[in-house]
């Protein structure tokens, strides 16, 4: 077995004290989050600082929806990367595809959970399901529920089918018992003659994920873009802006995770420098595109000919209460793009540098998502309302940041359950050279 | 018009990946309806699981919510 093969299985075969400590810390964070959720279920949204738009001088959507948009974008970006790798069968990026499958699934679940927790009565999620046949005819929220469900269904199918192929190439009795049981389950009824068909199906599924990312992937942006009564949201660029931000955060989370895995498990063979160079180039391009889109989004609202309501939001964004957050978020996007563009290979070679800039960019997108959702709601248009206020409560912070920590916990557990890639044989190596 | 925009969006955009998967699995080379059927079965099962688990979450939340 080559070093590359060994290092792919390394996360499965080692459970260090540091890993256990991480799981314990994240597990405690998950319990605290659960307590906050129970608290909100018992007392309702009054435990948040969310309030009616205009009359109560508040915002109707806050941290939950901002974090939902961040997770949904990350799912879209991961989905696009997985789709591209599987469709083009780029074998050397196989680990990135697996990381992406897991992240797309976890991000999709986190996004779905944050929508539900934002409902005044979360049990009324049942109404969303039963009324879907009617609401899907006109409601972007119903389209969004459809998109997130399709994302979860297709990503989990991709994960199951790609694992069926990967497990079929492994000696299950040499894997940890829980992974071996999962392998037995997923390779149930496997016949060697289905292998070629399975490869073909993964390509088709990859194409479908790409289509889903670039079509349905605009829907969470439309949630804001179609609201004609809300300055700062309304406009034709909202879907594109969401997609562009998602591609940045999706590729960033893959690069960050790959960098951490390589650093922690010494996976230099399985995650070679060229993979990081490729991810870095993608991140540079997507980051630049997102900045261009943001400029186009903001410019009309600060130009002197902007309608009054639009200019109030635009000026508040650039010079108002949250201006520091806005400019820091812009810096967290622009500076990494500049660094990546200038230093390129030198910067990306080890994976560590790319992981650091990816983390910074993820934070930048997170802050921008919050501002995109929250800040316009503070400036009601059309009626003489006061400027609204919003200071998230401890419950909101715990539930939102808790969702991120739970997502990291789930990913950490997944690295101990499923192999991070395929065991590349001679044929795969040849194929790899050809790409 | 707002009451009809959803149908073309649903059928023309949101379900496009599903059409791709069904057509690709069934008619993509090599033809193997057993493996294709298994793949589509997994996708259908995942759809039931995702929708079912969301409904279950609603029921559990309903039990906790006192109002």
Q: What does the model show?
A:
The complex is a heterodimer of chains A (435) and B (67). In chain A, 73% of the residues lie in helices and 0% in strands. Chain A has 17 helices and no strands. Chain A has helices at 3-13, 17-43, 63-88, 94-117, 125-130, 132-135, 140-168, 177-186, 195-214, 219-225, 238-265, 273-302, 308-319, 323-348, 352-377, 394-417, 426-434. The radius of gyration of chain A is 22 Å and the shape is globular. Chain B has 67 residues and is mostly helical. In chain B, helix 2 (16-27) runs antiparallel to helix 3 (33-64). Helices cover 79% and strands 0% of the residues of chain B. The mean pLDDT of chain B is 91. Chain B is built from three helices and no strands. Chain B is flat, with a radius of gyration of 18 Å. The interface between A and B is large, with 49 and 44 residues.
What would you call the quaternary organization? heterodimer
Helix count of chain A equals 17
The DSSP helix count of chain B reads 3
Radius of gyration of chain A: 22 Å
Average pLDDT rating of chain A: 91
Give a quick precis of the structure.
By secondary structure, chain A is mainly α. Chain A contains 17 helices and no strands. The C terminus of chain A is likely disordered.
Top keywords for this entry?
heterodimer, A: 435 residues, mainly alpha, 17 helices, globular, B: 67 residues, 0% strand
